[in-house]
Amino acid sequence: RAPDTLDDQLLKVVVIGDVTVGKTSFIQRYVNNTYKEGYKATIGVDFSLKQIRWSNTCSIKLQLWDIAGQERFASITRAYYRGADGCFLLFDLSNSATLRRAARWKEDLDAKCRLPDGSPVPCLLLANKSDLRQRQVTKEEIRDLCQKYAFVGCREVSVKDNINVAESVRFLVDIIMGQS
Ligand code: GDP
Ligand code: MG
Prior knowledge:
- The protein is an alpha/beta fold.
- The chain has five helices and six strands.
- The protein has helices spanning 23-32, 76-81, 96-112, 139-148, 165-178; strands at 8-16, 45-53, 59-67, 86-92, 123-128, 153-156.
- Strands 2-3-1-4-5-6 form a six-stranded mixed β-sheet, sandwiched between helices.
- Helix 4 (139-148) links the parallel strand 5 (123-128) and strand 6 (153-156).
- The radius of gyration is 15 Å and the shape is globular.
- The structure holds guanosine-5'-diphosphate and magnesium ion.
């Protein structure tokens, strides 16, 4: 990705996955370092912005797009994905159905959105709620899905305990910035 200017580069990154997997919590944790227990449904589409220092000459305005999560097969996702530079796809380690539906989300993304050069939008699979003991998904299942659906990688995270959140963002931004 060639820098637009010496200063800010705007990146659009969409966050997707089923309802209650932790999308809003992930964004709030990364952008504000806050975490709230208790579920508050996201209505419509929301945005958060975080400025990150990329190098001495370049900073990035990372725009994180949040969505309720019920929209997977609705036409709204096409508009939501439009112009995306990258994607985080979350599922809940304590709910195996959300992993199965992660495959459907990835298919929806790849069918509706491409980078300008036609390649798939780089998408990082995030297995959230690693703090919970009632795990329903094995590492093998995650790895298999990651390979089969051509994710750029997968990470286990706990938004609650702030494990692997910033690292995951850094990993995806590195991949986005490495693309020309
Ligand atoms: P969204 O519908 O995908 O936006 O999910 P939310 O971010 O609203 O989170 C749904 C519920 O999961 C909330 O009650 C959160 O407090 C909880 N949650 C989010 N992340 C974690 C986590 O890492 N661990 C645990 N135990 N709960 C989490
Ligand atoms: Mg939400």
